[in-house]
Amino acid sequence: MIPSSFEYHRPGDVAGAVALLSQLGEDARVIAGGHSLIPMMKLRMAALEHLVDLQDIDEMKGISVEAGRVRIGAMTTQHELLTSDVLAGAAPIVREASLQIADPQVRYMGTIGGNVANGDPGNDMPGLMQCLDATFTLQGPDGTRDVQARSFYEAAYMTDRADEEILTTISFDATDGGYAYEKQKRKIGDYATAAAAVLLTRDGGNCASASIAMTNLSDTPVWSEAAGAALVGTALDKAAVDAAVAAMLVDIDPTEDNRGPVAFKNHVAGVILDRAIARAWDRA
Amino acid sequence: MNDLTPTAEERAASLKGIGSTRKRVEDARFTQGKGNYVDDLKMEGMLFGDFVRSPYAHARVVSVDKEAALAVPGVVAVLTAEDLAPLNLHWMPTLAGDKQMVLADGKVLFQGQEVAFVVASDRYAAADAVELVEVEYEELEVVVDPFKAMAPDAPVLREDIADEKEGAHGPRRHHNHIFTWEQGDKDATEAVIAEADVVAEEMVYYHRTHPCPLETCGCVASMDKVNGKLTLWGTFQAPHAVRTVASLISGIAEHNIRVISPDIGGGFGNKVGVYPGYICSVVASIVTGKPVKWVEDRMENLMSTAFARDYWMQGKIAATKEGKITGLWCHTTADHGGFDACADPTKFPAGFMNICTGSYDIPVAYLAVDGVYTNKAPGGVAYRCSFRVTEAAYFIERMIEVLAIELNMDAAELRRINFIKADQFPYNSALGWEYDSGDYHTAWDKALNAVGYADLRKEQAARLEEFKAGKTRKLMGIGLTHFTEIVGAGPVKNCDILGLGMFDSCEIRIHPTGSAIARLGTISQGQGHATTFAQILASEIGIPADDITLEEGDTDTAPYGLGTYGSRSTPVAGAATAMAGRKIRAKAQMIAAYLLEVHDDDVEWDVDRFAVKGAPERFKTMKDIAFAAYNQAIPGIEPGLEAVSYYDPPNMTYPFGAYICVLDIDVDTGETDIRSFYALDDCGTRINPMIIEGQVHGGLTEALAIAMGQEIAYDDMGNIKTGTLMDFFVPTSWETPHYTTDHTTTPSPHHPIGAKGVGESPNVGGVPCFSNAVHDAFRPFGLRQSHMPHDHWRVWNIANSLGLHD
Amino acid sequence: MSKMHLKLTVNGEAVETLAEPRELLIHVLRERLNLTGPHIGCETSHCGACTVDLDGKSVKSCTVFAAQAQGAEITTIEGLGNPDGLHVLQEMFKEHHGLQCGFCTPGMITRAWRLLQENPNPTEEEVRFGMAGNLCRCTGYQNIVKSILAAATEMNAAKEAAE
Fold first, then answer.
1. What's the rounded Cα separation, in Å, for the pair A211 and A227?
2. N or C end of chain B: which has fewer CB within 10 A?
3. Which residues of B touch chain A, with CB atoms under 8 Å apart?
4. ipTM of this complex prediction, to 2 decimal places
5. Which residues of A are less than 8 Å from C22 in CB distance?
6. Which of C22, C50, C79 is at the close of a domain?
């Protein structure tokens, strides 16, 4: 498993990276941690002439929380997400999800930007970002623009990002209330059979707000607005949770693979969401 | 003697002989990264080979265009079947009496089959060139189902032998049929079944999987044209057999071939066979005059070299209404893939599948196995098992469970009333084996007591009530297994591979200063031979294990042996080691008697010395004797102290064990949680308890993998679906449970030190134990049989089909 | 394809070599620098046999391009101990039978080395979770976990004695 040849570039800032992408056109791709791209290149399923490595771009690193807004540089690794106390305080669901991604070595290299920008329906961060209603900042030759995670994903490996753009920053509001990231997988290192990200807030005995997103159950992450809506205003009784699950099942569209057939995935998606809601509600 | 004189016990302990928890001598190198595996070899001018493989499972090869590949800088050659044909090396014999294409000769029979071999200056250039070899294929109808392969109008897979009515193992009755192998008494068995009180019938499928050692297969071939010698380093579990095969098929005289197995990164049966990569590397080295390395990658490993299992076992078991088994019937359809490349002893085309009567006293039995070709990879190797023993153990341990359901009996009790009794050994089984020794009842009771079996069943019953009351969604399963293995192949009278008798060997040289070197015909792949065989020898000849070097794997220096697989090293080579040691001791006795000036019969062996009978203060240690052997002229005795033993075992050995697994199943997600696993093994005399325990942990984990998710799966087009470690399940430390090990000791009566072998027991017993636990959880809801692997969705599917999601 | 001038610090020593940008770090280490301790097991970043320490991180060197490693500080199994003084982890793997065929061992020990620096007092569960990026086909992990826990105890005792 040997990749084909490429020219290597290591720009020092985003502007330099964007300039390279503009100049080199579709023969170029950026590499962050590389743990999705390199295996594809080794299988020769991804061939490119130029590789633009973002590792030296300091402006794409780091986690900050200001005025209730969390900003994460795209080159921040999963390991850094796990070990950031600031982030654990502002949005504990990120740590809970990160722990369920890949394995220790991959988490040292894998970045949040790579995870969200690649458009792989198996990745966990896109669904999580939709649940958090995150904003992705993209920088291209014409400047920067913001795209909501909930409208970023078009199909498997197809996103709103243009070839010459770089996803530089992810931002979202700090969370309060209950949270849960529930994931069923075959083993450490596997993608989800089904995963659910749930954020809930409580108003007295009732649910005040709810956001629900599902992973690896469609060719994109699925933020199920209807599932969340089914919970708001209820005391999260069985009927409400069943309604949320039913609404979610309308929105997902799993396909059969080695993890199992469609009927199984639908069933498990329901179970996983049910459990995620229960855990989030406990924490709310 | 004064108080400072070591006692016999102290002297024995200092030898670190049999029974000692001796730390491994191999580990200093391995922990420092100083192992020497085949891919670590580097040679001046060495080239690298890489395969062009078929993307199709069944296709005609219309043309191969090498031009663009040859233009890649660094590429030296691109070999195809056309290039190998003049040397008659485009096909090779398999260990099972079939032949296999080295490179596609007109067609391909499985996805990943070798089509062309690119030789280049390094692996990067080779990989670039592989992509540029243009092969035109014409797709043919694909058959992946062995039952469909036997349909009258099924496509002809093996056109080379389509019209041959006779195969290596008797008549063929269909163009995709390989052999029928029958054992036992068909008529008597069918008569018993017809009249029985109770008959349980079931299809038991043992799915296709793969040994997947962490190191893949590879070699370096180096033809020295100056002296005409070929050296072949490789991942060979049987280096001498490789040398003989290489000589037979290449025409190079055997003395001009040197085969070396360096350190091997796990084998588990994957490294027994001969693969196209080895042949192509040798040819490429002969053609180019340079060393050529070939190392497969993981995907190539999983798709082309040596699958295991794929046995469809239709069974019937008959019993009285009290539960005494009266007969066993089995018909197996064996899917061998495109070529029959099993690695079984010649007379056993289905290996030792006829051990399928297991631990039970079954008066009459019948077994028939039909081998079938399909468009899948060849293999059928013994993955951590002795020649289809895993299949046999899984079959009988499932049939026992199904019979228990039929009888509405506790499966532990059903086993107990059918075990072969201790006083029945040596026991002649209905399918032709003579079990050497065993005490199954003692082991079984010890195991049941250790886990608190009665309490576990009570807890399970209480859980079931909670489940039915809607208080939990988790079921509890208790998996039972009592297995009997047959290992240590084997007696030359009935065991050979390619005509080579399955003896093994040990040669010992004692050095003048009283240390020693021993060389064996086996080869360790992690079993710790350098540690344990020195222990056997230490106990036999009284030289500390630390003073004995063990060497294996170099055919120029080691005595001829058949290698390491099928748990045969300890039963066969271990016996040879003991016997060679006894030859040393016999000569040492004469030397000692001479030195002590007494008659040979007047000295006796005492741990590490010969002493005059009745006068223990008059003695000569083995160290004294060794020196004398080299510096004294002793009348009637040749100088030196060496011995060699070629050991032809009189019988197989029959290790056994009792395993109990407790797990919880989430019926809504199909997830299983192994709560505890207890493994009692009886491998006869225990040479090194630490290493035995390590073997058990490892074998159980491979069993866990196989039972719970590990498979080589194909789609209908013959595309492999599980070609990387993302989809081919190898558990991590996180999914692997903590194991409890235990033992009883029933020595083998025919083995010089009573040892039976252990490496494969935990896999043989572990798979049915995990599987039985899953089945047991669903028994109250009517589950009889559900095929492995028990991954999440299949377990969920059991629950779903039993109405547990309604 | 043109080669790049690669400068690395490996096991404390500055090294330079020429390599194509696409060369995988594992190949640079094994083929160009003759450090054959780290092995190649799966090539898809699942098995961890190729684990080395790169700038304070455990990484699978089969999934890092040589070019990405430019300027990096790397520790391999060869840098942890030597014949005159094995690292405690190496000693404990020997002592507790934490290896069999030895193929996964360099990656295991190198990963454990980083794990114990980040968490000097791990529980068994934390060791199992922290080692889940390294596959072993021989041992069933039980004695690997035991070896790492024993090494942690030894290292902590040594640290305490030094203080």
1. 8
2. C
3. 123-124, 126-128, 131, 297-299, 668-671, 709, 713, 721-722, 726-727, 729, 731-732, 734-735, 791-793, 796-797, 800, 805
4. 0.97
5. 2-6, 41
6. C79
